[in-house]
Amino acid sequence: MKNEAVFIFSNQLMDYKFGANHPFDQKRIQITMDLLDKANALKKEHIIPPRMATDEELELIHDPDFINAVKLAGKGKLTGSEALKYGLGTEDTPIFEKMHEASALVVGGALEAADYVMTGKAEHALHLAGGLHHSMKDRASGFCVYNDCSVAIRYIREKYQAKVLYIDTDAHHGDGVQWCFYDDPMVCTVSIHETGRYLFPGTGNVFERGHGRGYGFSFNFPLDAYTEDESWLYAYRRAIMEIADYFKPDVLFTQNGADAHYYDPLTHLSTTMEIYRVIPKLAHQIAHQYCKGRWIAVGGGGYDIWRVVPRAWSLLWLEMTGQVRKGSLPQEWIETWQPQSPVQLPKEWDDPLDLYPPIPRKKEIEEKNRRTVHQVLQWLESRK
Amino acid sequence: MKIEDAMISPVFTLKRDNTIRDALHLIEEKGIRHIPIVDDGNQVIGIVTERDLRSALPSVFFRSIEGEDVLERPLESIMNKDVITAHPLDFLEEASLLFYKYQIGCLPIVKENQLVGIITATDVLRTFLELTGASQPGSQMEIRIENRPGELEKILHRISEKQMNIHSILIYPDPKSKIHKIVVIRIETINPNPLADLLRQDGFQVLWPKGVNA
Q1: What integer pLDDT is reported at residue B65 of this predicted model?
Q2: pLDDT of residue B63
Q3: Inter-chain touch B135–A172, beta carbons under 8 Å
Q4: Phi, psi of B37 (to 5 degrees)
Q5: How many domains does chain B have?
Q6: Rounded to a whole number, what is the distance in Å from the CA of A348 to chain B's nearest CA?
Q7: Which top CATH class is A3-382?
Q8: Which member of B142, B190, B212 has the closest CB to residue A200?
Q9: How far is the alpha carbon of A250 from chain B, nearest alpha carbon, in Å?
Q10: How confident is the model at residue B136 (pLDDT cuts 50, 70, 90)?
Q11: Residue of chain A nearest B186, judged by CA positions
Q12: CB atoms A91 and B193 under 8 Å
């Protein structure tokens, strides 16, 4: 029987680890899986281990020099100045033991997810350790060593010749993936993020629309700092419905960074758990409407690993598998993790309405975001 | 930065006896707005802008009026002969000043009496944008410092301690206070918070990123 969805995981994925006190912490996957387990929503038979990506597969995107540098770094054999040329050994991407193996496994997880979905062994696949969307072909960047999204998308292009719609809802612009497919009309990238005026990586402007034959296949929705649910969702709904209808993808690939939440320490958006209910819901709908269900979802950012990521990513899996959870979180889950958590864990699946004080510039921000959405989409409308 | 690093070359040009029709065609085809007019020796003798061409045409409301076909007139009859030019080794700042002072949109670049390039106000703007490092992955930090020697050094020292790479630094007078300056730094990091905290501890007024309790 065909699986509805598979969950890519093995403990080796936890080896992608930059060390204590680093904000990128895969412990969040463990906390998420425990929440799903205690909510009785994740079964052993759903879980599929990742495979290791080969060098040849990594070279679908990455330069051999860079791969070699990562290998040497992981063995402690790369000098400091040589490392910096590849974005390694920085505060963002410190060198750690066996970093090549850990990073290639993250990519392999995305390839495994792609194979499951493209061969029809499963309709959907979730790979929470993936989503490393900042990595460039020759450089690690923003906590990302190898770009599992880019490698998997090119793999899908070459092996299955499918048109890929990439939707990135991480609070940071999905720059690495965008630049990889900037001149490719068969891969449409969509990124909804906090404006890059201050926030990393700084790109993701409305006017970045693609290049050459790929012009019109990159879409960027930079939203103002302090954007709230309603305005964020307005952008998301309009963006993905209109773009899916225009592009008519064969497969949907979503990057599900969970760092647009009010609590996230690295970004300045003001959304709540509400958007993490709607994001997968609409993605799911698009997957069935255009792609015969084919949907690969990966993780991404998400730096409040206690109050935000476990709930957000659980909601993603619940949507993927057609399950619903509302109201109180399992008491056992709270009891398990509260002793370790530096903050009070939430008690409910959804956030309270008074999560944060009112935003003074609310109206202005909403108006600005509406204009942004209009600016991006008017190009599509002008072609109808 | 010198103009030669930002100018566009080669340049689309026309001769004095080319027609307004030729010029409109060139502007349309190449997506440009300015055409230098050169003589047979590639010396600039005039310039025709898109606006000159449009104002030479009859109003859309009077297109049907019969008369001389303006499209066949030579460019000599409408070109501006008082052309302001610049040299490839001039600084971009000087070019910007000319745009501002004469309210013009482009400068033909001339070396040894030969037209070698062209730079428009848009090219200057794009170049300044690149100078701010906006095209490299990074975070932007804004700090208000006191206008006295040594302040910037303290900030840079902290950045260097953190092994962070700097894309660009811009310093400008604080419009709200004569004794302060604003420093804008683009740093190659996704997480500027620890650096911002450190600078706050040093007593700096970090305007962005805002602290957790801000």
Answers
A1: 54
A2: 62
A3: no
A4: -105, 125
A5: 2
A6: 24
A7: alpha beta
A8: B190
A9: 31
A10: confident
A11: A198
A12: no
Note the pLDDT tens digit of each residue in B30-64: 889 999 999 999 999 999 999 999 888 877 776 65
What residue spans define the domains of chain A?
3-382
Is the Cβ pair B137, A84 closer than 8 Å? no
Are B36 and B94 part of one and the same domain?
Answer: yes
Q: Evaluate whether residue B134 is within a structural domain.
A: no
Tell me the nearest-neighbour CA distance from B124 into chain A, angstroms.
18
- Residue A94 in contact with partner chain B when CB distance is under 8 A: no
Query: Average pLDDT, stretch B76-89?
Result: 94
ipTM computed for the complex: 0.81
Judged by CB atoms closer than 8 Å, whether chains meet at A198 and B208 is answered as yes
Instruction: Name the pTM for this structure.
Output: 0.84
- Write out the residue range of the structural domain in which residue B69 sits: 3-129
Q: By CA distance, what is A94's nearest residue in B? A: B163
Asked if the model's pLDDT at residue A346 lies above 70, the reply is yes
Q: Best residue in A79, A133, A135, A198 to probe B by mutation, most B CBs within 10 Å?
A: A198
Domain membership flag for residue B214 = no
Task: Give the mean pLDDT of A15-26.
Answer: 95
